[in-house]
Amino acid sequence: MDPQPVRRDTPACSICGEPAVIHQRYTGRYLCGPHLIADIEKRVSDTIASRQQVVPGDCVAVALSGGKDSTALLLILHQLFGSRGDIRLVAVTADEGISGYREATVRSAEDLTKRLGVEHITVSFAELFGDSLDTFLKGRETQACSICGILRKKALIVGAEQAGGTKLATGHNLDDEAQSVLMNVLRGDLTRLVRDSGADSGGRFIPRVKPLMYIQEKEIATYLMVQGVWEDLPECPYAIHALRREVRSMLSGIEYRHPGTMLRLMENKKRVGTAFLGKPPREPFGTCRECGDPCSGELCQLCELRQSLGR
Ligand code: SF4
Ligand code: ZN
Known about the structure:
Blueprint: E1 22-24, E2 29-31, H1 33-50, E3 59-63, H2 68-81, E4 88-95, H3 102-116, E5 119-124, H4 125-129, H5 133-136, H6 144-162, E6 167-169, H7 174-187, H8 190-194, E7 208-209, H9 217-227, H10 243-257, H11 261-275, E8 286-287, E9 294-295, H12 301-309
Parallel strand pairs: 3-4, 3-6, 4-5, 6-7
Antiparallel strand pairs: 1-2, 8-9
Helix pairs in contact: 1-9, 2-9, 7-10, 7-11
The structure holds iron/sulfur cluster (SF4) and zinc ion.
């Protein structure tokens, strides 16, 4: 393709000279739509290969909330593996029951899986735990995300197991991962700081993988716009209570002024983890006395939560 003349106010793609859609500040490059798509799909494929996140014979259960990260994740995995006979994809949606928010994202997840021809399983909090998140959170709104996180993790594992999944892939991006590093530092949670959620757990949990862990949120949003699948969806009403929201806004400001900060945070997490090799600050695995799930104390987080909710 011959490079087209570029309008003077639009920067040109550093690879082909076409009008750019994004400035990748941490590499200094401008990229046009096709080169952004190729760059992202290549980097995701490299992350998957280098960490052996997906191997032949896997059934990958993709956690699909219907939001932008998980939509991009399913599109990319479908592009990479959709035509391969030795890897199966299935989408799993946890419907928390958040009124005014979840309906639109669940519908978006249904539309996408239909269009791609990917099997889709939805597990609702109401079916699994007897009530919606909205009901559980009455009077506990400030703890929304920690309660939601524990329940959703279980719902996704149940859905992935139902589908015969051997891996559970989530749409966490570089911003999410860098925010988690910083939040664990702020909370002084060393165990979580060095834990690699993709590490082998000896078959006790379905392994979780994060193929988008090195892709920025802004790159994902632009990827969806270029692909013509961008949808302006509502934000979760409980997000205003989250510490993550404050960390997110602080970190994106720092990343803008000092490109590469988020990648360096991830590097530092790896370094701290390596420094602990052989003496990782992790608690021993036990078995929950209520439900038999693996856990570090007497009760797993879910059973502890159920007790505190009186369920
Ligand atoms: Fe759950 Fe918090 Fe995300 Fe809302 S913002 S879906 S409450 S984790
Ligand atoms: Zn339990």
